[in-house]
Amino acid sequence: MPVATRETSDARVIAHLDMDCFYVQVEQRKQPNLRGLPTAVIQYNSYKGGALIAVSYEARKYGVKRSMRGDEAQEVCPQIQLVQVPVARGKADLNTYRNAGSEVVSVLARKGRCERASIDEVYIDLTEAAEAMLKEAPPENLDDIHEEVLKSHVLGFIVEDENDTKKEVRKWLCRSDADYHDKLLACGAIIVADLRMQVLKETEFSCSAGIAHNKMLAKLASAMNKPAQQTIVPRSSVKGLLESFPIKKMKQLGGKLGSSLQSDLGVNTVGELLKFSEEKLQQRYGINTGTWLWNIARGISGEEVEGRLLPKSHGSGKNFPGPQALKTISLVQHWLNRLCEELSERLQSDLDQNKRIARTLTLHARAYKGGDSDSHKNFPSKSCPLRYGTAKIQEDAINLFQAGLREYIGFYNNKSLGSQSNRWGITSLSVAASKMVTIPSGTHSIVKYFGGQLQPSSSLKQTPESVIHEAAPSSPSGGESCLGLNSYESQLGYPEEDTRMKYLRASFGQQVDQSKGDDLTEESSLLSPQAIENGTAEKEPQPSFPVEEPRHIHAVPTLKTVVKKNTAKEKGNCSILKFFKNHHDHCTSVKQHATNGQGGKTLSIGSESNYHSDSTINNQVESLKETNHEAIGTDNGESSASHEAGEGRASWSYRMEEIDPSVVDELPPEIQLEVRAWFRPLKRPNVVKRGSIITHYFSTNKD
Ligand code: TTP
């Protein structure tokens, strides 16, 4: 989701460096005889000659495009050299490219704060370096400016004599009457050219760059003149640049939000957004996205260069195009096992090298159903807390897949696989590990770190079996699953036994007593079963709208009281299930609440919660009705408290989308996590709830 950030008034110099036809360059470094030849890297599969994933600039001249397959590329350019990506475990092995990307980052990081944006893209904040240069050796004082700098493109700068471009650029760089911003950018251009030459010398890779006062503009500019060139964006040229810049090409606008701008507002270029007031954009897309759109129309972006040299996540995926589509669970399991093996290896090496652990495992897939391989429908992505160890990741991944499949085909069981309506095919599978956390070094801090996550508790033992089993329908072990963990290992998210124990001993400086494991609550308990079914727990933010709702911060005296009361009782528990556990004993079974007419989700409050449909959230929060009947309600005239007849006790329900998220702020942090996971999927576009107050949601009787 786009995030509006206020731009600082300070002058900044940000560069975005993007490697040219990166995989091709990596392959050409391995095989120097390919240099200068039309070359393309193809995916690992022979279907129609394999999909092209990187195309050299020589091949582009012949009309070879990334969208082509090998066969087609050979038709338009018979002399093309097709190189297959390295292969491991029957799929592409991108490690060579990742490592090559790291080589580049390590050169750049010497000069400023770097953010690795992708396998071959880096942002670098050169403000300090440019300021220092301007002070000590400004461009106009330089006897010699390198040719590479003089080849820079300066947006909006009209070169009068085409034959004298370098001389003209030199003049622009050395203007003594330039404003401070442009002077800094001129210094930035000199530094970036130097860095690019350094990268070429040390890695043999060429790259292109954009130099501007913010990340957004630097990124736009780096793609404007490729390969091996750089583009400067003076402030005065921002309006001209955005005026004609296609809206769908803008970062974060390639998807639904960009399409909505086109179809609903008739906006086709970024500049056309200038026609709309901030209020209008906010009304249509929500406060945050509205402001973000208003900002980008003006080239405003306050986003900082994050200072991250390591990837944000790890992923392993594979496509199964055409006839290769996976049509049985056992085939899916076979490939998931391989993908998980690779993921696990990379997580292990990240842990070894960087002392980082990942906290979330996500499964994505593309699929078709009903035997129609052309009709791809969205296969729901699913997430759960990540447990280290290849076998555990494999087990959790297949469970996530099955949860997704069940939702995807509406109803799923093995017996009906053969029937036409339940036929399906998987054309793409991937697993990703995200939410990377660096483990603080030092005995004291590591204890503190784990202490926060692993408070002693027996809550898991009280987690309803039914919930666990339903959520993990085919757990091979029949026991431990991504939802039902209670081993020390799973809590720590640590890798295989030996490494884990070794690492813990080293970290704590003491013997680790494994037997203590049973007493600890694991992170997975923070995940509601519904969240896993919905793929919402800890789900990575998607770059499309829904738009974030405005948050309302209101005092919530009633709920606060309840929370305080329970918190005192339940200190140390990590799950909302546990949080309310004292009230289960005498509860009755819960009736499942169907999705309401508006597609909303209903949270049924009662006991013996059965994990059921993805649109129904059931949790054992009976205590709310015990202590605070009036705390939950709806505002649409439907009964807020649905007393379940025949069960002897009331089971309360409320529609999730009608609960003010600010209520969650009042809950203990560990409970907040879980409740937030319930809220996430309910964010909807074009809804700006104004004037919502907590009493509105939590009044006893709604008409
Ligand atoms: P890009 O930076 O998008 O492209 P590129 O470096 O090949 O070419 P350009 O000079 O135009 O920037 O992608 C970087 C690498 O990522 C690319 O070399 C191959 C890989 N890649 C894929 O594997 N699949 C894809 O769909 C894309 C877009 C890239």
UniProtKB/TrEMBL annotation:
Keywords, sorted A to Z: DNA damage, DNA repair, Magnesium, Metal-binding, Nucleotidyltransferase, Nucleus, Transferase
Catalytic activity line of the entry: DNA(n) + a 2'-deoxyribonucleoside 5'-triphosphate = DNA(n+1) + diphosphate
Coiled coil stretches, renumbered: none
Name of the featured protein: DNA polymerase eta
Main localization category: nucleus
Family: Belongs to the DNA polymerase type-Y family.
Gene Ontology cellular component list: nucleus; replication fork; site of double-strand break
Location(s) in or outside the cell: Nucleus
Organism whose genome encodes this protein: Acacia crassicarpa (northern wattle)
Cofactor(s) it depends on: Mg(2+); Mn(2+)
PROSITE patterns the record matches: UMUC
Example GO molecular function: damaged DNA binding
Entry annotated with the keyword Nucleotidyltransferase: yes
Keyword DNA repair attributed: yes
InterPro entries: DNA/RNA_pol_sf (IPR043502), DNA_pol_Y-fam_lit_finger_sf (IPR036775), DNA_pol_Y-fam_little_finger (IPR017961), DNA_polymerase_eta (IPR052230), Rev_trsase/Diguanyl_cyclase (IPR043128), UmuC (IPR001126)
Gene3D superfamilies, sorted: 3.30.70.270, 3.40.1170.60, 5' to 3' exonuclease, C-terminal subdomain, DNA polymerase, Y-family, little finger domain
Domain of life assignment: Eukaryota
Annotated ranges, domain UmuC: 14-254
Matches recorded under Pfam families: IMS (PF00817), IMS_C (PF11799), POLH-Rev1_HhH (PF21704)
EC number(s) per entry: 2.7.7.7
Record region (Disordered): 458-480
Biological process per Gene Ontology, one example term: error-prone translesion synthesis
